[in-house]
Amino acid sequence: MGIHQTPAWQALAEHARQMQRIHLRQLFAEDPDRFTRFHRRIPGLLVDFSKNWITDRTLALLMDLAVAADLPARRDAMLRGERINSTEKRAVLHTALRRPRGASLLLDGRDVVADVHAVLDQMEHWVEAVRSGAWRGYTDRPITDVVNIGIGGSDLGPRMAVHALGAYAAKHLRFHFVSNIDPTHMARVLEVVLPETTVFLVASKTFTTQETLANAHAARAWFLRSATEADIARHFVAMSTNTEAVRAFGIDPANMFGFWDWVGGRYSVWSAIGLSVALAIGMEGFREFLAGGHDMDTHFATAPLADNIPVILGLLRVWYRDFCGLSSCAVLPYDQYLEHFPSYLQQLDMESNGKGVTHAGVPVQYATGPVLWGQVGTNGQHAFYQLLHQGTSVVPCDFLAPRAPLHPLGDQHRMLLANFLAQTEALMRGRTLEEARQALRHLPEAERERLAPHKVFPGNRPSTSIVYDRLTPRTLGRLIALYEHMVFVQGVIWDINSFDQMGVELGKELAGALLPELVPGAAVGEHDASTAALVRYLRAEDDTPAGD
Ligand code: G6Q
């Protein structure tokens, strides 16, 4: 029986029809305890989900759905290391990367936690050498620049986290991230670094990714214009699971930091892929980051479903997607340090749950992963919030905000928080026509009547507020793990494999076929008329000026 055929699903569908007529204003007016009942706290974090389209009954029905989908057992299976990545027949053990030293978890008879800590110790050794200046470049100068070369999961996590933890970062090291095959990306970085004071971190789980290998080769060629092959060992390290390919590239495996096939790319910032993060904040900070992830794992593993923050927030996503017909959600951090968090989450969520078949390969009969997007506040307020408030699409929003600033500056943190609160309140309450008229009472009546409809806000726009004490490595670890587990919860309800990414393959295959066809004079393969014409145009064989 598919999840959509269970009584729990059908009860939610019926309940959603009843909820359609209720405005959030009304729910708050009728229930002074609404915040008390619909928020949860764990140390350092408060999650207020009272401004969502829910009642006690909604939550109870969502919990029934979680039970119908066997969520607790599925969660435990992931944490135990069962091969829940069904298509690739792999365990999914990013949580093992954050288990404390001395814990143990056996996978095929091997203690993966011991392996994790062996790599962390290796990282510590190198990270502290680079940060202290003991590790020197080929002209005996200390390292000043770190260039991470990687893409997707080998880029978005480290880039986001290095930026997010900027307040704790070594000031004498500059960090650069090159991901795109577009040569502009590498060229712009090479303009500002020197070969003798730069280390390149080649981050690739498979060490076969076209973009990363092309960029790594370009960096190597640039480096060898000033240095020798023997100097490579001091300037290139790799983070990978593929020792042979690392060696073939010319990096000594002694300068390789390993991880394992049970770490998915978009879940890999906690592994050696986080080497740039460790270089930025030091190993003590990196271990704190891991401890934050572990805090959330412990909460996810042990809190009762109704108090379990990732469970509640994951189920709310399902509620909006499948029962309220909403197809997108926004993440809006009121924290400049979290500038790259929305694009990080975009991959985490959309690559994990943008799936159309169940584990058994049967097309799903319901909607799966929403489109996730967002930007930091208050910037977004001056851009797309118009649509959030008055547009015809309803977008549930996650607001994130720190209670305390990392850089106190006059009254600005309070101004930031006032804006965050004002947005959640405005989205929830809206403004009626009568209130709009009131606000315009100073105007002549005709003018007031002309403008008032434009100043009406429907309100009833749901949001969740996630408030943390201040952004520390530990807080960031908790926040990332919170979203990882929310993604997992949704995948379990939808019975999809959140841990493969077959949807990125077809484009890669076609790009491989098209590459030789872009050489002028080469044969153009079998394509639709559009693709074939574009190939010719790009080869400059069709020079009809654009616009003619
Ligand atoms: C993430 C994806 C994908 C991957 C990149 C880079 O979950 O698998 O974004 O991280 O394609 O892969 P490599 O690390 O193997 O170069």
What attributes does this structure have?
alpha/beta, 548 residues, binds glucose-6-phosphate
Describe the structure in brief.
The chain has 548 residues and is an alpha/beta fold. The protein is built from 21 helices and 13 strands. The chain folds into two domains: 3-88 and 303-381 and 394-404 and 472-502, 3-Layer(aba) Sandwich (Rossmann fold); 94-282, Rossmann fold.
Descriptive report:
With 548 residues, this protein is α/β, with parallel strands linked by helices. The chain folds into two domains: 3-88 and 303-381 and 394-404 and 472-502, Rossmann fold (3-Layer(aba) Sandwich), CATH 3.40.50.10490; 94-282, Glucose-6-phosphate isomerase like protein, domain 1 (Rossmann fold), CATH 3.40.50.10490. Helices cover 46% and strands 11% of the residues. The chain has a six-stranded mixed β-sheet, sandwiched between helices. The chain has a five-stranded parallel β-sheet with strand order 6-5-7-8-9, with helices on both faces. The protein has a two-stranded antiparallel sheet with strand order 3-4. Residues 150-154, 204-206, 209, 212, 264-266, 351, 501 line the site of glucose-6-phosphate (G6Q).
The profile of the biggest β sheet is:
6 strands, mixed
Indicate the percent of residues in helices: 40-55%
For the secondary structure, the number of strands is 13
Q: Please compute the radius of gyration using only Cα atoms.
A: 26 Å
Overall geometric form: globular
Number of domains: 2
Physical arrangement of strands within the biggest beta sheet: 1-2-13-12-10-11
For this structure, what is the CATH homologous superfamily of the largest domain?
Answer: Glucose-6-phosphate isomerase like protein, domain 1
Q: Briefly, what CATH class of the largest domain?
A: Alpha Beta
Write down the overall mean pLDDT. 97
Strand content: 5-15%
Low-pLDDT runs = none
Bound molecules: glucose-6-phosphate
Count of helices?
21
Give me the CATH architecture of the largest domain, please. Answer: 3-Layer(aba) Sandwich
In whole angstroms, the N-to-C terminal distance is 58 Å
Kindly identify the CATH topology of the largest domain: Rossmann fold
Structural class: alpha/beta
